[in-house]
Design a protein that fits this description.
The structure is a homodimer of 353-residue chains. The first copy, chain A, has 353 residues and is α/β, with parallel strands linked by helices. Chain A folds into 2 domains: 71 residues, Orthogonal Bundle (5,6-Dimethylbenzimidazole Phosphoribosyltransferase, Chain: A, domain 1), CATH 1.10.1610.10; 271 residues, Rossmann fold. Chain A is built from 15 helices and 6 strands. In chain A, strand 5, helix 12 and strand 6 form a beta-alpha-beta unit. Chains A and B meet through helix 3, helix 4, helix 5 and helix 14 of A and helix 3, helix 4, helix 5 and helix 14 of B.
Chain lengths: 353, 353
């Protein structure tokens, strides 16, 4: 609990005056004012978060946190639970969607076993922070103990901090866990006080009948566990997941170091909700890479007041949207730092100049 | 006229059966089916356009075509006409928005003087294809002769073909020309039969009063010149611009070689309308990088049935949106060509597998 408390305590509000510094520079560049739209907004946000007027987001790291979910025994997914471990092997071999998109973005992928149900062995690029062998079935009881919830967050903090020493300018979050949209819908419904029907989607691609059942199971899970919406650790432990706790830890640790956090889709969003409940100031440090097809994601983004960069109908997770978003963010920063000014380039900045 | 006719004649419908080939591969990759949304759609389109089942879009070239507009004497822009030439110098020195974003995307920028009102001299990376020293004022008469319209398109074909011999996998279009949103609004209104109020925006950032005047001027231009909506060369010559003709040429030449064309914002969109009128088959080969703030752009995209990749509130032109879009397109292609298959990675593809 000490590491979590210390990390939360280090999170401060950013220096808002930096926004006007960044605005001044953007308006001096050879383009009509604000003509690069959201690129300019994103550049300002990176200045705000990093505290640097000429920032760089060269060193990019994506943490893809994996864990299993006991609720899969209720058959709420289109894929068997074995796929979590199989996909972790795919990640370490470099063949998954996140590997392809992170390579393209120039981002390092760090895969973390937060609680896969089998032992995965040693692999280069895989960090073992196993809190348990999958969560328990939330339809029958708590996913994990409160101590395990704290341990999962602290494990996320530790993996971030270890990597931070190697150099991180920007961090992305990602997930792998068959059954984890079920947990994320439960978290989202409880924290945002939204009807389950509005925050529960088809995940990996279940049919309409299974969707009805999935909603029933989540209702049951909330009824059985009675998570306290005002206590983020209660929500995480009762209906969450180990990988979700790990992502919460990465978010908190990054924000404490003023490193911009690019969240991916629905599962990262659910983790962001928990991080936000723990420390509302994190919101200013989070950038939403995209809006997922998984419909609860939009509710999360609206709740947090985040505007997604991309709308590409993604619903894969793993950090894939974060990788794409990082590319747009780096381009934004380069606009701020590499474009010529009107004065420097000898270009008239208005009719009268 | 011969080069234009020959180029148009070379344009054929793509081989639609390739879509199902690409779909088969996408569905064999380690992800839930269609979970990468628009990335998968874009990858299929690149297969269709290129005719290759495992395409590459490594060699990227953006043509930024510049020219002046006589209509600037009506004071329809927030910037003086001198800025066109000043920005061309900024392009060749590498300080403009397009330079920054093209560098980031790994794209080469080729700047073409299609009709700037002054002589620019020799500069590395600048091609001179001057059709005239700016168009004439469309409020008083035709922007250019029909012969000049054809010459501008053929110049675009020539610059593409010269560069094609160096190797191009994907091409982007861009523009520079103070006054060219005025010409583009006129083209869009005529071809799409839309009220001028719906297709005329604030360009580089004029005030409300100037916007009213801009609409008046365009009305006058259409009244004086009576462009024939069914004759694309009439529209281009009467209310167009030399850089718009150049972009038309690049589009036609690229499509004739089955090279995907990534169009930028409103001006590139107006050029796409003309290319489409000349040969409707070009539509399948065009990818819309983004939807501009300049409101006529959405009308163009809807008219052509194109769905923009990005919505970033851009309105700079130069090819900046095309550069960003190319990054997403290349990522899409890498998903298709670099991801592991279920079988190859030993991942279960369904509950029963």
């Amino acid at each position: 609990m000490q590491l979590l408390q210390d990390t939360i305590q280090k999170i401060k509000k950013p220096d808002y005056f930096l926004i006007s510094e960044a605005q001044k520079r953007l308006d001096s560049l050879t383009k009509p004012q604000a003509s690069l739209g959201r690129l300019e907004e994103i550049a300002k946000q990176i200045v705000l978060i990093s505290g640097r007027t000429m920032p760089s987001v060269k060193n990019k790291v994506i943490f893809t946190m994996a864990a299993d979910h006991g609720v899969t025994e209720e058959e709420v997914s289109a894929f068997p639970k074995e796929v979590t471990a199989q996909m972790v092997f795919n990640f370490v071999k470099g063949g998954a969607g996140i590997n392809v998109l992170a390579r393209y973005a120039g981002a390092k992928v760090i895969v973390v076993d937060m609680g896969v149900r089998v032992d995965l062995g040693n692999h280069s690029g895989l960090i073992i922070k196993k809190i348990g062998y999958g969560t328990k079935n939330i339809a029958k009881g708590s996913a994990m103990s409160r101590e395990e919830a704290i341990a999962s967050i602290e494990a996320g903090i530790e993996v971030f901090e270890a990597e931070y020493n190697e150099g991180i300018d920007i961090v992305g979050t990602g997930d792998m866990g068959i059954g984890n949209t079920t947990a994320s819908s439960a978290i989202t419904s409880v924290i945002t006080a939204s009807p389950l029907e509005d925050v529960t989607g088809k995940g990996t691609g279940i049919d309409d009948k299974t969707l009805v059942k999935k909603i029933e199971i989540i209702k049951k899970a909330i009824g059985v566990n009675k998570p306290d919406a005002k206590d983020a650790l209660s929500v995480l432990s009762k209906v969450g997941g180990f990988e979700i706790g790990g992502i919460v830890g990465v978010i908190l640790a990054a924000v404490a170091k003023r490193v911009p956090v690019v969240i991916d889709g629905f599962i990262s969003g659910a983790a962001a909700l928990i991080a936000y409940q723990l420390k509302p100031e994190v919101k200013d440090f989070i950038i939403a890479s995209h809006c997922s097809v998984e419909k609860g994601h939009k509710i999360i983004l609206d709740y947090l007041g985040l505007k997604p960069i991309l709308n590409l109908d993604l619903r894969l997770g793993e950090g894939t949207g974060a990788a794409l978003g990082m590319g747009i963010i780096e381009a934004s920063v380069k606009i701020l730092t590499e474009m010529a000014t009107f004065q420097g380039a000898g270009v008239s900045s208005s009719l009268s100049s």
